[in-house]
């Protein structure tokens, strides 16, 4: 079982879904459940990653790979700029516009 390095916990389960916000903007909400704590993020598309559907697909695939294997998924937060740096199990790192939200 792979680790989420945010809290070095084993990924038990996760949810990645597109949601419509009050403003009408569509964003992805990522909730990760581990044996230590849970984390929730709001991710939106931007110029770097204009296709929110692709972001959702990539996050689901990366989280599933980490859950099913000994591979790791790392999330580094740069909250001052609302960036999330996600390093996928294959070693590729993507920068997304996003932030941690309260569960």
UniProtKB/TrEMBL annotation:
Q: What is the protein name stated in its UniProt record?
A: Uncharacterized protein
Organism whose genome encodes this protein: Zoogloea dura
Q: What is the lineage of its organism?
A: Bacteria, Pseudomonadati, Pseudomonadota, Betaproteobacteria, Rhodocyclales
């Amino acid at each position: 079982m792979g680790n989420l390095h945010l809290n070095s916990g084993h990924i038990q389960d996760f949810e990645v879904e597109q949601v419509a916000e009050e403003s009408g903007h569509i964003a992805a909400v990522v909730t990760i459940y581990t044996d230590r704590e849970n984390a929730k993020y709001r991710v939106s598309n931007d110029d770097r990653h204009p296709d929110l559907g692709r972001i959702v697909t990539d996050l689901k695939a990366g989280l599933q790979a980490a859950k099913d294997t000994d591979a790791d998924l790392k999330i580094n937060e740069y909250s001052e700029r609302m960036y999330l740096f996600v390093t996928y199990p294959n070693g590729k790192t993507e920068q997304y516009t996003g932030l941690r939200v309260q569960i």
